[in-house]
Amino acid sequence: MSFSRSAGASAPTPGSSPLLAPIKRRSFIKYAGATAGATALTLASCKKDDTTTALLDVGSGDVGVLNYAYALEQLESAFYTQVLAGAYFTSLAVGSAEYQLLSDLALHEKIHVDLLRTALTANSTPIKALSFDFSTISFSDRTTVTGADKMGVLNAAQMFEDLGVAAYNGAARFFSNVDYLGLAGKIVSVEARHAALLRDILVAGGASSLGNGFVGADVIDSSTTSATARMEKSLLPAAVLPKVNAYLATGSQLTAPSLV
Amino acid sequence: MNIFEIISEIEKVDPEVYDRLDSRRSIFKHMSGLGQKLTAAAVPLAFGAVLNKAYAQTTAAPGVVDVLNFALRLEYLESTFYNLGLGTIGATATAAQTTFRSGFSTTNLASLDIIRLDESNHVSALIATITALGGTPIAAPNRTPNALGVTGDFDFTGGKGTGTGPFAGIFTTPATFLAVAQALEDTGVRAYKGGAPYLMSNKDVLTAALNIHSVEARHASRLRTMRRAGAANNTASAVAPTNSGTNEADRSASPKSWISGNDNGGPAPAVTAPVYGAGTAPAYTPTTLSAPVFPAENNVIQGGVTLSATTLTATANFPTLSYSEAFDEPLDVPTVLTIAKTFAVTGSTFFG
């Protein structure tokens, strides 16, 4: 199994792929191997209630956090894939601010998904390709229509990006491998940049005198006296997954009993 | 016991001793020259100095408090910057500050005031955390400006105390202010990212640092959006990056809300290029950090894989720049301090 997914396309440069040079210390990938055996993904069936659908366990330790991140990125990426095909996006002028924004976000999230899957595949078994349920999002509406029961595209995008930031920040404590922590750090600040721009758009369009949507009180501790004043409100997996599972199809919903 | 027996003994517990000494070969040469002049008894002393140097620089990784004090230096820099330009929190703005504030749109000014508030609170939070850990927070810098807008420690024009550096007019020209603000926030994001690995021993502190890190990233994004549209634009987010966002040369004046390639060196490439450039792995790397590298922001190698449509097969036809945009890069402590010194007054020791 190779970290590189280019098998059959073109041979990787010798040494460029950590798995082809197993002695290389800087590869963060090799560390996953140590825990891979202990992280066989299981379907945790609920014994108390037969009607409860089985949940997918992301696993424990470094691999568990990577799978958790992989799942979040899959969700974001799948969302943007539908956005790009939806009536709202396809009505935008090519080159308009929101066209460029959503195009970039779709690219970034797809790259995150592919890198995380590649990293996991190298030494472990990534969780499966998830199935989604976006029935509560309207891909033809720019923002949530007042009184409607579906979210608009920009509102949903903001919600997913904010959730990603809170999730990465909250899960970092479960890494034991410093290189994985580093990789997550490289991703989370890009998610925060995404979130800030989306919030900027939504606030500027609705309440221009505020101007503080990018660090709104729903995502930042708005206190100026608490120990966490003006810091991001990070979330542990147990708080994130119910929000994530709302957009995952039956059979793809997640649990993270080891990441506590 | 001669020197080579000593090295041999050390090698039993540290197989890399030759590498450590070899990387400082110039010192070794120096010592051999000394040996001809010094008495035999003095040589072990000189050799001891070499060993101290070899080991001191490779083992003294920053501790949790060291990293927090490092972050505190940067937060003081940022906080002072916004207070000098926009007015000190809680104080009445001076006439000059009031005039300066009128150069920003309503939404932009509100955002800048929020950022000012955030940085001030980050200073307080770091001081509280360092104290709670039993550490000693660094002394506050001199934050009182003279007639040139220069404090005893900071000159935000980059003039080293003259007030006439490359960012002259920093507190009278909104565009210049936003350019420096972007550089400071982007530096902050890289600095926290580079410091995080040294906080893993304390999970709560690590989480707190990351919770500041992402707020800095939100600031940077907002400032970049403002710069893209201009300081006086009230709906900055409606403005697209020029050239469909595909030409890095446009990113100095028209940045995306995230870093694209090296952003062409940032807002003022002659001064800000290091903010987006490569760092240097410090010699004091702990062994848990497996050969850290600090590439420039245009890096496309993640986890040993060169990202492309070949290696990530589901990304066919993606623009080359998108692979760098999807990841921010950390920066090492010494490089960050060197960047921070851009805004230090000559003679100030605040950044070492």
From TrEMBL, chain A:
CDD domains: Ferritin_like. SUPFAM superfamilies: Ferritin-like (SSF47240). This is Ferritin-like domain-containing protein.
From TrEMBL, chain B:
Residues 230-265 are annotated as: Disordered. Residues 230-244 have a biased composition (Low complexity). It holds the Pfam family Ferritin_2. It comes from the Bacteria. Gene3D superfamilies: 1.20.1260.10. This is Ferritin-like domain-containing protein. It comes from Hymenobacter ginkgonis.
